[in-house]
Each structure stands twice: as C-alpha cells, then as structure tokens.
Write a structure and sequence with these properties.
five-stranded mixed beta sheet, single chain, about 230 residues, mainly beta, 11 strands, binds fe (ii) ion
Length: about 230
Amino acid sequence: MDYKPMDWDSHPPLLYPDYHSNALRAPKKPLIPTQHTLSELTGPVYGHDSVGPLDNDLTKNSVKNGEPLGERIIVTGRVLDEDGRPVPDTLIEIWQANAAGRYIHVVDQHPAPLDPNFLGAGRCATDSEGRYKFYSIKPGAYPWRNHHNAWRPNHIHFSLFGRAFVTRLVTQMYFPGDPLLDIDPMVQSAPKEARERLVCKFSIDITEPEFALGYDFDFILRGRNATPMEG
Ligand SMILES: [Fe+2]
C-alpha cells in the first residue's frame, strides 16, 4: 500500500495563533519530509472481539442508577479512504462532554453538573462496508478560556486508526446550525473549503421514532477530501 503525501489544503495549519495553546505545541522549524517506513504502512488491526456489546452506546455503557440526562442522539456514517473506498474493521474511539458541557476530568472544573450515569467515552468498529453507528447524548457547549467569553460549540471527539498509522485521524464532529461555529478558533483553523466536512447532517431517516434524533457523518482518511485533523 502506497500513500500520497498529506494534503494540507484539508487541514489546519500547524500554527494557528487564535487557538492560543496551539502555539505551545506547533513546531517552530519547517518539517522535514521522510519516507514512509514499513511500521507506518502496516497498521494496527482491531478485531470485533475487542469491542464490547455496549461500547457503542454511551447512553448505557456507564449507567449507575438511571438514564443519563439530555437529548439522545444516534450518529452513523462510513469511514472512507482517500479514493472513496470503505474502510472495514477499523476502530473509532469516541469521547465527549455531557449534556451540561462537562467532562469527567480533573482539569475540567467549570461549574456545570457531572452526570453519574454518563461517562462520555465509547468506541465502535466499522463493518464490512465501512459503516459505524453509536448512541449518545448531545454534548453541551462549554467555556474554555482561550479568550474572553470563549465557548466551544457542541462537539464530539474522535480518534480513528484506519488501515495504518499514516491514516490516523484525530478530529471533532460538530452539529448543524450551531451559532458558535463561526467564532470558534478550532473550527475556523480548518481551511474554509474543508470546514463543512466537520459538521454532521441531521437525518430523519436515521432518527428513531419516539427515541432519538439521527445524524449522518462520514470520515475520510487522507486525500483531498480528507476530514480535517484537530488543530
Ligand atoms: Fe471537547
């Protein structure tokens, strides 16, 4: 398997000054191109055995004494490679804030309630056609101190491995119609043409009656239509 060089027209620049902590991580010198080696081209392979039956249901996978609070959602779509071919049997890891916009993490101390029945973490694997599906609670917006009155739009974090380490994708999915998208430095750091690839689409066909709203979201690993990496 051969991979073309990464297409930077789909991804945020390594240094995006409006995203302040990004400046601490961005390289200060030009990148040095290197050849892909065997260890990057042969990938991590995850079997379905390693994914538990409730791992893809964040509304159930950490319930203690009741259902988690908030709006139930269904997210589904496909993982595709740079030529639009489905990527089967690939692991998708998921993490997010609860409905009140709070993570279970020692660094997150903003005054919104934790939900004892919601961990905000899960995972799923794609099937033979590259499809995935998971259930969750719509995450709330939260303040993040990047600048005065900075709030992150509703979003879900993902990590995907694809077929090899060179197809690794760490990204965030956003929801349509969110007024914070236009003023969020992380969203805005993605090139304009690629930004809409970060926003899922509401789907009445995926929506389950009397249960949950459905959203459609495809991941594209590498290539000119790639899903933008997190900045
Ligand atoms: Fe987040």
